[in-house]
Amino acid sequence: YNRIGIMGAMVEEIDLLHKHVEKTGSFVKAGIEYVEGTLHGRNVVFCKSGVGKVNAAVCTQLLIDAGVDCVLFTGVAGAVEPSLNVGDIVVSTSCLQHDMDVTPLGFARGQIPFQEVWEFQAAADLVELANHACESLFPGRSVTGKVLSGDQFVADRAEVQKMHEELGGACTEMEGASLAQVCVMNNIPFVVIRSMSDKADGSAHVNFAEFTVQASVNSHRIIDEMIQHM
Ligand code: ADE
């Protein structure tokens, strides 16, 4: 990869990139700042998309238009897989929009009507790189799995159980499947790396801010480790 795109949704998620990337330039489009530079000698472009699928879609397309040849997402998520604890990591094998719901017309939950693919596959080489990074930095604390995205902060145990049983999700967040869809539409490889900030069960407000900082650090360290081996 010659030009690596890195995206986060919130300031905590890209703060460490601001500190560690040697900047060579920047530009603003659609109100989003794209910072160009080098990280461990590799060309990178990073940006903060803002929260939610629309922000992530616009941001991903503009990142691709800026010439990146892969996209890495770093951030936090709510755990769906019951074995996951706060601070554990999910590397996306695929991403699906859990809030895409045209079930009244007979489509499956998550299915985008009239489209053959609605579960978007991450690039196998990037998944492997991310797994290696996870195993060396946080042994035994990561899984690969399906990332469920929607414009909702999930805070309900019953909903989480459904997301796990019906959709086979590992974690839930608000951008991954949007980024994934845009990458697939452009034939650009991607992987989403999410560290768990909460269990999506309604207790997040208690310590979301604190866990988000720690989880963002974990997620950043994985990206940093990956780039050294890309
Ligand atoms: N990001 C972090 N935790 C989340 C949750 N519970 N739901 C949606 N996005 C999240």
TrEMBL record:
- PANTHER family attached here? 5'-METHYLTHIOADENOSINE/S-ADENOSYLHOMOCYSTEINE NUCLEOSIDASE, 5'-METHYLTHIOADENOSINE_S-ADENOSYLHOMOCYSTEINE NUCLEOSIDASE
What is the name attached to this protein's record? adenosylhomocysteine nucleosidase
Q: Which GO terms describe its molecular function?
A: adenosylhomocysteine nucleosidase activity
EC main group: hydrolase
Listed pathway(s): Amino-acid biosynthesis; L-methionine biosynthesis via salvage pathway; S-methyl-5-thio-alpha-D-ribose 1-phosphate from S-methyl-5'-thioadenosine (hydrolase route): step 1/2
One matching Pfam family is PNP_UDP_1
Q: Tell me which UniProt keywords the record has, alphabetically.
A: Amino-acid biosynthesis, Glycosidase, Hydrolase, Methionine biosynthesis
